Amino acid sequence: MSAAASASASDPSSRLAAAGAEGEVSLLRLYVLRATYLLLVVGVGAMILPALIDHEPTARGVIPSLLGGVWLLAFIGLRHPLRMIPVLLFELAWKTLWLLAFGLPQWSSGQVPPTFAEDVFNIGLGVVLMPIVIPWGYVWRHYVKAPADRWR
């Protein structure tokens, strides 16, 4: 750790700034966010861990690895719910894309795979839940409206 990073980590003003960011979101909302991360830890973990632990040596493993990454990041979200909001935004984005690009066309054509009902339920739950859970005012202020990081 560099001296500057060490100094800023122990700097009371940086701790106050972090506390101020948390103060923008109610304690109840922080608990709701933590519950959402816990749901990801339990739900995604139950689905993905078996595929990560026990698989064929030639398995491609792209989807279990990607969702395993979300699973690992959800653990950090339990401790830092606001800092890990991009994980929830990613969940909302990929699930919305799946519903629009795959789920809806399959359903409207009547050509659904055997896992369609389970997939639509699990993915649709995220599309309904994430917009309710995500503190959109915080996202607007800290990800959209805030000045961009410098390029150089």
Report the strand count. Answer: 0
* Poorly predicted segments: none
- Proportion of β residues? under 5%
| Rg, alpha carbons | 19 Å
Domains counted in the coordinates: how many? 1
Order of helices and strands: HHHHHHH
Q: Considering DSSP H and I runs of 4 or more, what fraction of the residues is helical? A: over 70%
> N- to C-terminal separation?
22 Å
Mean pLDDT: 89
Short characterization:
This protein is mainly alpha-helical. The protein is built from seven helices and no strands. The two termini are 22 Å apart.
Descriptive report:
- With 152 residues, the chain is mostly helical.
- It has one domain.
- The chain has seven helices and no strands.
- Helix 3 runs antiparallel to helix 4 and helix 5 runs antiparallel to helix 6.
- The longest helix has 27 residues.
- 12% of the residues are buried.
Question: What is the topological layout?
Answer:
Elements: H1 3-10, H2 12-23, H3 27-53, H4 62-79, H5 85-109, H6 116-133, H7 136-144
Key phrases:
7 helices; 77% helix; globular; 152 residues; mainly alpha
